[in-house]
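Translate structure to sequence.
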């Protein structure tokens, strides 16, 4: 079969999230956002962008990224877990999505065969490993969206890859320190040759309870993935990074990513420096205050209407189960409610491996009106 014949017979569908967003009627409210689009960007980020244009902002950086940013991340991370990091432990990427791609590509080349991901997962945890021929296995969660540690332990082989995500998309679940310690104990005894990939992209968006501690503080064989997309209302700047104690591995991932991106956009790397240095903390606190308020508005309406959910405390999502209220699939419901006049966009749980649920984004300044519309739509189904 020729390339053109294969192309004619192969579907490359849009991700479910995009399908639903594309169905949106112009008068619908979006509770489907995966970014803080309605929130102002901190002025220091904008200043850094402008200043970089007067210096070397239009030039390439090293494949691994801007030394000043890598050094800032190294010194921030050192304070978290006490290990002595340098720029050689850090790789800058084009968002966490690119970080995941680069890490999985590299580890697949190095012989990784299986990757364990949570049973409710961010979509690319499944898609990227498949592109590199890895077997994807889901590990079960318990009722409150925590990890079923016994089940995970029974699944684990010594050279597996494992992904964790806290605060989580789409559940809003944040690990407690005790849960981190218990998970680390399992990993220390079972994952002796593989790696843990800890997706910490929402690490600064915790609006209730203790701030996050990076998982690198609990388990040495951790690759930490973080960035500015979520916490800085700067998803479009596409800056992420990888932190690893293993410099040889950092160098291998850099080499494998250089063929894809050469280097991340220089101006945008400058924009991340004030975030890493903690200078935008006050702005992030303001975001968290709004997210908490929005969470409370949303769960209040769910309570009144007896719709079950687990209370989220981080990221900016709420993940209630609604299939029991419908006489159609949740995905169909989402497509219909998005496309109707005065409708609302919410994301079907199918996009995260949980078809009975919907993901509601709390990152909307129209949360109350959006929730009212959602409840109205649910009542007539
Ligand atoms: C859990 C999770 N990881 C990674 C990403 C991708 O982040 P980035 O925009 O930095 O590529 C997202 C974006 O939605 C996410 O929710």
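Result:
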């Amino acid at each position: 079969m020729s390339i053109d014949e294969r192309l004619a017979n192969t579907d490359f569908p849009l991700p479910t999230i995009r399908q639903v967003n594309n169905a949106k009627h112009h008068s619908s409210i979006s509770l489907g956002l995966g970014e803080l689009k309605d929130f102002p960007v901190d002025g220091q980020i904008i200043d850094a962008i402008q200043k970089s244009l007067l210096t070397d902002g239009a030039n390439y950086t090293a494949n691994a990224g801007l030394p000043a940013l890598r050094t800032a991340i190294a010194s921030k991370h050192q304070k978290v877990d006490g290990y002595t990091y340098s720029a050689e432990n850090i790789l800058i990427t084009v968002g966490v999505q690119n970080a995941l791609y680069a890490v999985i590509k590299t580890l697949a080349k190095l012989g990784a065969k299986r990757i364990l991901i949570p049973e409710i997962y961010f979509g690319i945890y499944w898609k990227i490993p498949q592109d590199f021929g890895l077997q994807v296995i889901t590990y079960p969660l318990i009722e409150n969206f925590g990890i079923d540690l016994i089940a995970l332990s029974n699944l684990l082989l010594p050279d597996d890859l494992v992904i964790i995500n806290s605060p989580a998309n789409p559940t809003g679940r944040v690990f407690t320190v005790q849960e981190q310690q218990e998970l680390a104990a399992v990993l220390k005894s079972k994952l002796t040759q593989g790696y843990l990939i800890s997706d910490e992209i929402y690490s600064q968006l915790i609006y209730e309870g203790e701030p996050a501690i990076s998982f690198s503080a609990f388990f040495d064989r951790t690759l930490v993935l973080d960035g500015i997309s979520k916490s800085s209302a700067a998803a479009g700047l596409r800056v992420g990074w990888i932190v690893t104690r293993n410099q040889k591995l950092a160098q291998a991932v850099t080499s494998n990513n250089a063929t894809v991106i050469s280097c991340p956009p220089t101006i945008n790397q400058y924009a991340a420096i004030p975030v890493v240095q903690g200078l935008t903390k006050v702005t992030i606190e303001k975001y968290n205050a709004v997210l908490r308020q929005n969470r409370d508005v949303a769960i209040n309406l769910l309570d009144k209407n007896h719709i079950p959910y687990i209370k989220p405390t981080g990221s900016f999502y709420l993940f209630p189960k609604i299939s029991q209220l419908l006489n159609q699939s949740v995905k169909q419901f989402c497509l219909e409610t998005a496309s109707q006049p005065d409708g609302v966009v919410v994301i079907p749980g199918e996009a995260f491996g949980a078809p009975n649920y919907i993901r509601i984004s709390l990152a909307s300044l129209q949360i109350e009106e959006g929730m009212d519309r959602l409840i109205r739509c649910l009542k007539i189904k």
